[in-house]
């Protein structure tokens, strides 16, 4: 069965997955790179110099068995990208997705075929409709929900997420976009585990109960 998975979604102690304001110069706002320093230190990110411990073991699951990605408009670009017909995402000509990638947005445009197997398609659809489209494109493999916080929250609220890996980073952001707002009692529907890493982050996994 094809699963819907979240991986490496990094949040502050107070639950923010990004700071503010988001801009072309500061994609994570005042959070800067603090939410992802744990990942930059792994072999998953830095094949030559990275570590191969707990953080790497979690991080590399991001890429295994994935046939399509869904992301939100604010992950795809900074505020105003809709008005730039040449905007093709942050990631250059060969984005790191290598699968059909669906951008949820109210400002749709024709699909963009990139190098390396990534095709960006733009969907104005409910979470359930978007997931159905992504599952078809994934040819039996799993669908990764790539974030940001708003899209992950909406899919969890709609009961569409099977597995979530979040990384709680020991920083307090105080403001930004929170994952948890409006959600409650996820422990009723998910088995939740926490693993502390020597790097200082805590890996949280949410696995949907049968
Ligand atoms: N911490 C992490 O690990 C992590 C991971 C990924 C991303 N991020 C960061 O998170 C931030 C983005 O998160 P976010 O919560 O601001 O936004 P987001 O979840 O990326 O996108 C939300 C936007 O997507 C569009 N959208 C969402 N659902 C839709 C639907 N059903 N139909 C049509 N359009 C829909 C809407 O934009 P429009 O109405 O404008 O089209 C909405 O405002 C960025 O800073 C990104 O860098 C962090």
Automatic annotation (TrEMBL):
GO molecular function: 5-amino-6-(5-phosphoribosylamino)uracil reductase activity
Biological process annotations from GO: riboflavin biosynthetic process
Domain Bacterial bifunctional deaminase-reductase C-terminal: 8-185
Name listed for the protein in its UniProt record: Dihydrofolate reductase family protein
InterPro entries the record matches: DHFR-like_dom_sf (IPR024072), RibDG_C (IPR002734), Riboflavin_Biosynth_HTPR (IPR050765)
Domain of life, per lineage: Bacteria
Pfam families in alphabetical order: RibD_C
């Amino acid at each position: 069965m094809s699963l819907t998975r979240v991986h490496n979604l990094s949040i502050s102690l107070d639950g923010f997955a990004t700071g503010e304001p988001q801009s072309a110069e500061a994609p994570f706002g005042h959070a800067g790179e603090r939410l992802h320093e744990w990942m930059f230190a792994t072999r998953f990110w830095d094949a030559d110099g990275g570590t191969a411990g707990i953080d790497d073991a979690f991080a590399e699951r991001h890429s295994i068995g994935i046939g399509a990605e869904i992301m939100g408009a604010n992950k795809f670009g900074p505020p105003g990208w809709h008005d730039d017909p040449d905007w093709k995402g942050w990631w250059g000509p060969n984005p790191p997705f290598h699968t059909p990638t669906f951008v949820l947005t109210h400002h749709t445009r024709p699909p963009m075929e990139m190098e390396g197997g990534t095709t960006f398609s733009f969907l104005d659809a409910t979470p359930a409709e978007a997931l159905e489209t992504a599952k078809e494109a994934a040819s039996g493999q799993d669908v990764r929900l790539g974030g940001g916080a708003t899209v992950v929250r909406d899919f969890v609220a709609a009961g569409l997420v099977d597995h979530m890996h979040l990384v709680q980073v020991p920083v307090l952001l105080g403001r930004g976009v929170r994952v948890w707002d409006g959600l409650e009692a996820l422990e009723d529907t998910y088995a939740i585990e926490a693993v502390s890493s020597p790097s200082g982050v805590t890996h949280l996994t949410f696995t949907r109960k049968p």
